[in-house]
């Protein structure tokens, strides 16, 4: 997920982007070889979406030591597969360096990365009229850098994702046509065949379920069909939380639930949210099979914010609080584990740059940890088990939010509105 404030950032690259040669051959393999096909869907490799930014701007990049702090925290809770994007920013290369250093420092440390190359249409973020029929000149630089990093760290980078929600049409500031994603996926697949990339590196695009054919017919175009055939797996996003406002057909308290307790009503609503996510997955699966393709589908992003002053908070659908976030996290982990899918849960830590103009906006609160390292309700049991003993974030021990008081937490839990009060589109 990206911030809807869409802050334009100009950050000096730490590496040279001026090199035209993109096909530096991957290094030989003196390392323990673990392939993407071995990791994805493997319950021993818990996946998560990660951004290490601790300030309200990406102009302040996390340091190598801060990234290593985060890696130790995530590794302690069983995470061994990260998803990150925007390879033109120092964060991506620094993250890979941090992981590489940790592997050298501790033989048991294991972490792999799905590296995302950002893709835009022409004139995105420039102030000029965007052209969704052409691609940005910057796309090649992003792909080139993803190739460079994959070849520099072949023991860590196991997947490259071309674009992040780059085809979905509500991304009006930058979305591209499927042929753009297809072009770069084919380019990377060709590099694999020519041994300019590791042949076992998997290539995908990480996008909204609708972009993968699971939504309206406007997405059902021939270039999408070719893309589905070209990727090694489908990485789809599903966000029921957003649809508690935009399409709340699964949300709200029904009349037959009137006799339930408050917490039982919330649990029923969150179970419906899980089933809603499942229905979007099955929509993608049906479309994929309808065009004669059968390959893995994994959840590239899904999450639930713990706070919002917008559509999803107290004055809106009343969806956001730590209790519901924990229920959704548990549901998604349970469902995807049973289905043999990876779930890059969004996200590890709160990132306040996501909506810097609105500090109480939901985009800033999708983390399982707060910025200062407090574990939200979804992870309280891990704190009790001593999983994070001795670990810190920014000098702070990993402790529970609300000082560990469930009674205080429940005070902030919002009751979903009655279904009859919701505006549900046909």
UniProtKB/TrEMBL annotation:
Chief subcellular location: membrane
Cross-referenced InterPro entries: Beta-glucan_modifiers, GH, Glyco_hydro_17
Entries under SUPFAM superfamilies matching the protein: (Trans)glycosidases
Pfam families xref list: Glyco_hydro_17
Presence of keyword Cell membrane: yes
Subcellular location: Cell membrane; Secreted, Cell wall
Record keywords: Carbohydrate metabolism, Cell membrane, Cell wall, Cell wall biogenesis/degradation, Glycoprotein, Hydrolase, Membrane, Polysaccharide degradation, Secreted, Signal
PROSITE patterns assigned: PROKAR_LIPOPROTEIN (PS51257)
Function noted in UniProt: Glucanases play a role in cell expansion during growth, in cell-cell fusion during mating, and in spore release during sporulation. This enzyme may be involved in beta-glucan degradation. Active on laminarin and lichenan.
PANTHER family noted in UniProt: GLUCAN 1,3-BETA-GLUCOSIDASE (PTHR16631), GLUCAN ENDO-1,3-BETA-GLUCOSIDASE BTGC (PTHR16631:SF17)
Protein name: Endo-1,3-beta-glucanase btgC
Organism: Tenacibaculum polynesiense
């Amino acid at each position: 997920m990206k911030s809807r404030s869409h802050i334009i950032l100009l950050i000096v690259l730490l590496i040279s982007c001026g090199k035209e040669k993109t096909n530096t051959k991957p290094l030989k393999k003196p390392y323990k070889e673990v392939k993407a096909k071995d990791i994805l869907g493997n319950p021993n490799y818990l996946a998560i979406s990660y951004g290490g930014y601790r300030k309200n701007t990406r102009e302040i990049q996390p340091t190598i030591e801060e990234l290593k702090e985060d890696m130790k925290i995530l590794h302690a809770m069983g995470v061994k597969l990260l998803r990150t994007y925007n390879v033109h920013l120092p964060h991506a290369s620094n993250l890979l360096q941090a992981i590489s250093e940790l592997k050298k420092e501790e033989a048991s440390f294991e972490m792999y990365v799905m590296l995302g190359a950002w893709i835009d249409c022409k004139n995105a973020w420039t102030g000029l009229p965007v052209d969704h029929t052409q691609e940005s000149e910057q796309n090649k630089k992003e792909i080139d850098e993803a190739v460079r990093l994959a070849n520099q760290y072949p023991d860590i980078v196991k997947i490259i994702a071309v674009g992040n929600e780059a085809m979905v049409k509500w991304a009006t500031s930058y979305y591209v046509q499927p042929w753009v994603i297809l072009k770069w996926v084919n380019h990377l697949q060709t590099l694999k065949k020519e041994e300019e990339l590791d042949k076992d590196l998997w290539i995908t695009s990480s996008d909204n379920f609708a972009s993968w054919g699971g939504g309206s017919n406007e997405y059902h175009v021939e270039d999408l069909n070719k893309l589905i055939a070209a990727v090694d797996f489908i990485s789809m996003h599903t966000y029921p939380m957003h649809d508690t406002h935009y399409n709340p057909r699964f949300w709200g308290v029904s009349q037959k639930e009137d006799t339930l307790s408050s917490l039982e009503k919330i649990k029923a609503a969150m179970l419906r949210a899980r089933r809603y996510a499942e229905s979007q997955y099955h929509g993608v699966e049906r479309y994929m099979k309808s065009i004669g393709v059968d390959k893995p589908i994994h959840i590239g992003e899904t999450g639930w914010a713990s706070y919002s002053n917008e559509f999803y908070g107290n004055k809106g659908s009343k969806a956001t609080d730590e209790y519901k976030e924990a229920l959704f996290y548990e549901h998604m982990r349970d469902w995807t584990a049973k289905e043999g899918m990876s779930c890059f849960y969004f996200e590890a830590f709160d990132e306040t740059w996501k909506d810097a103009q609105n500090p109480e906006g939901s985009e800033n609160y999708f983390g399982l940890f707060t910025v200062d390292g407090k574990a939200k309700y979804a992870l309280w049991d891990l704190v009790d088990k001593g999983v994070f003993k001795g670990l810190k974030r920014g000098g702070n021990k990993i402790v529970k939010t609300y000082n560990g008081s469930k009674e205080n937490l429940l005070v902030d839990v919002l009751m979903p509105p009655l279904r009859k009060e919701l505006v549900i589109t046909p």
